[in-house]
Amino acid sequence: TAKPSSMSFSNRGKTLEDELNDSNEYYNSRGIAVIHKKPVPIQIVNVRYPARSAAVITEAYFKTASTTDYNGIWQGKYVDFEAKETKNKTSFPLQNIHDHQVEHMSQIHAQGGIAFLIIRFSMLDRYFVLPFEKFIVKWTRMINGGRKSITLLEIEELSVELQPGYHPRLDYLRALPDIIEQLTVERTERQEP
Amino acid sequence: TAKPSSMSFSNRGKTLEDELNDSNEYYNSRGIAVIHKKPVPIQIVNVRYPARSAAVITEAYFKTASTTDYNGIWQGKYVDFEAKETKNKTSFPLQNIHDHQVEHMSQIHAQGGIAFLIIRFSMLDRYFVLPFEKFIVKWTRMINGGRKSITLLEIEELSVELQPGYHPRLDYLRALPDIIEQLTVERTERQEP
Ligand SMILES: [Mg+2]
Ligand SMILES: [Mg+2]
C-alpha cells in the first residue's frame, strides 16, 4: 500500500540544485527574497548561424567557476552561497570546494554580506547550512596541514540543520537569522576588552 | 604626431562589457566592492567526453537572460544592474530591455536593493547611470502607449553621467550615493501629509 505521508518529504531523485531552484522560485514568487542560480560559465569557441534558425554553439568548454553558485537579496541583505552534495556518510571532503570560491566568499564576508555553504549528505538525506565563518576555520586547518575534510560531527555542531519539506523544499533562509545573531555576538565579544 | 593626452581616455574599441569588467576588477582588487558579470545562460544539448581531454560541448543554444548582467555587494548593499549600449545619438530604444529584466529589477528594488541601468551612447562616447526608479516611469509610459524610447535629454535629466577615466575605467559606484540620497528624499516626501 502507498505511504504518502512518509514518502512526501523524500528526495525523489532530485538534485540539490533542483531542490534549491524550487525553493528560490517559492521565495521569489512570494516576494520573500530574490535569489538565483548563476549560469554555468562556458568558454564559447565556435558558433554557427544557420539561415532562418537560432544560432548554434558547436564548440564550447566548461570553465572553472570564479564565484559561487547562488546569490541574491533577502530583507535588504546580500546573500551568497555555494551548494555541495556528498555521498560520503561521515564527513564532507574539502576537495569539493575550489580556492577561488573560498576567496570569493571571504570577500563577500568582508563586504558585510551573508556567505555560507549548503551541504547535502545524499546517502543520509540530511541538509546543513554552514556559515562561512565556521567553514573557514576548517579550511584553514587543512591549509595548515590538518585533515582534508570536515567531519559530520563537526558539521552538526557548526551548522543549522534543515528539515526538508514541501513548500519550500529547503527553507534555508530560516537558518539565516540564527547565523546573523551568532555573528553579531561574536563580533561584540571580540570588541570587548 | 601622437596625442597621448587626448587619446588616453578614448574607448579604443572596447565594449561596454570590457570596460565594466575592468572596473569591477579594480573595485574587487581594492576591496571596494565585489561585483561580477553573470555568465551568459546556455542550454546545453550535447557534450562529448573525449578520452584524456576536456569535455566538449558540441551543441548548445543561447537562452534569454532571466535576470540582469551584473550583481554584487558594495558597502554592505546589494547592487544589481543591466548594461546596454546604443548606436543611437538622440535616444535610448526601450526594445533593448526585456520584460523579465524589468520584472527582476523591480523585485530587487522591492527588496531594498540598488537597481539601475548603465547606458552607453557609443557614437557620443557618453555613459549614464539611470536608477531603476527613474527608468520605470519611462517604461510605464511605453506600456501605456507612449514613446518606445527615452530621449537623450530625459536621460541627461534623470541619470548621473559618468566621466570615463583610467582606473577604474568607469567609476559607476561613485554615482550610487547620489542615487541613494535622492531615493531617501523621495520616500520621505511621499510619507509626509
Ligand atoms: Mg555547487
Ligand atoms: Mg547587457
Tell me what the structure shows:
The structure is a homodimer of 193-residue chains. The first copy, chain A, is an alpha+beta fold and 193 residues long. Chain A has one domain: Trna Endonuclease, Chain: A, domain 1 (3-Layer(aba) Sandwich), CATH 3.40.1350.10. Chain A has six helices and ten strands; from the N terminus they run ααββββββαββαβαβα. Chain A has helices at 4-7, 16-29, 99-110, 132-143, 152-158, 176-191, and strands at residues 33-37, 42-48, 56-62, 70-74, 77-86, 91-93, 114-121, 126-131, 149-151, 160-162. In chain A, the strands form three sheets. A six-stranded mixed β-sheet of chain A has the order 1-4-5-7-8-10, with helices on both faces. In chain A, strand 4 and strand 5 (77-86) form a beta hairpin. Chain A is globular. The A-B interface holds A 28, 31, 33-34, 36, 38-42, 44, 54-62, 66-67, 71-78, 80, 104, 107-108, 110-113 and B 28, 31, 33-34, 36, 38-42, 44, 54-62, 66-67, 71-78, 80, 104, 107-108, 110-113. The complex binds magnesium ion (2 copies). One magnesium ion (MG) binds next to strand 5 of chain B. Chains A, B: Its main location: cytoplasm. Chains A, B: The record marks 84 as: Transition state stabilizer. Chains A, B: Belongs to the RecU family. Chains A, B: It catalyses: Endonucleolytic cleavage at a junction such as a reciprocal single-stranded crossover between two homologous DNA duplexes (Holliday junction). Chains A, B: Residues 1-13 have a biased composition (Polar residues).
